[in-house]
Amino acid sequence: MKIKIAYHLNLDSRKIQGAKYAILPGDPGRVEYIGNLFDKKGKQIAKNREYCTYLGKIHDQNVLVTSTGIGGPSTSIAVDELGQLGIKTFIRVGTTGAIQDWIKLGDVIITTGSVRLDGASTHYAPIEYPAVSDFEIVQLLVKAADSLNIPRHVGITASSDTFYPGQERYDSSSKYVIKKLQGTMKEWQKLNVLNYEMESATLLTVANALGLKAACVAGVIVNRTKGEKIMDLKTGEENAVKVAIEAMKLLIRNQYVKL
Ligand code: URA
Prior knowledge:
The protein is 28% helix and 31% strand. It has 6 helices and 12 strands.
């Protein structure tokens, strides 16, 4: 069979050994930590730029952990190239800023759909096309969070290309947000959006456009109704990773393990 090569990820179809599933953190520094939690610990199989990939096993199925880097453009490359290699199912695991006052640090947010405040997704589908999560994976993420006793919120995420102006942050270099974006946090709050992050709009749009399945779980590291500074990185990150891995176990169990 012809070997397929994914240039940016520095991967090819031989290296991934038939894997069909991938967990996608943004940060290459989190990949090893996630791979170590698999049933058979992951080993690094590729590294290039912001993309680091480990291959391990969950329930005897090969599963990748690949970092996407921050934001839409690098995420679109990761998802497209993993799709070219035969990955069918993606769970993004990340961190997030909550914008509703009842959401606590360390809670996780499971995205049902994303407001497309990115640019990359518009190169795959027009803006009217929804950035929605796969229904089955959302259910499994909820089940996973509940079984782990991790508080979770399920709903809409605003997914922005920028961390500062796009999320209406004034603690930036200029301390200024352009007029078009002033008041946008209030608007999303009124429209019952739960949180801000930076990759789900691209992931969900690209995955749906390519006929692939994807969902997103993110740990809360700041609540924007209280301030702009990141408060507690560790609890939110760890909780989101636990939920993502447990959901991947449930998914693979549903699809492969004969009971
Ligand atoms: N990631 C984001 O995109 N925004 C936040 O506020 C925190 C994490």
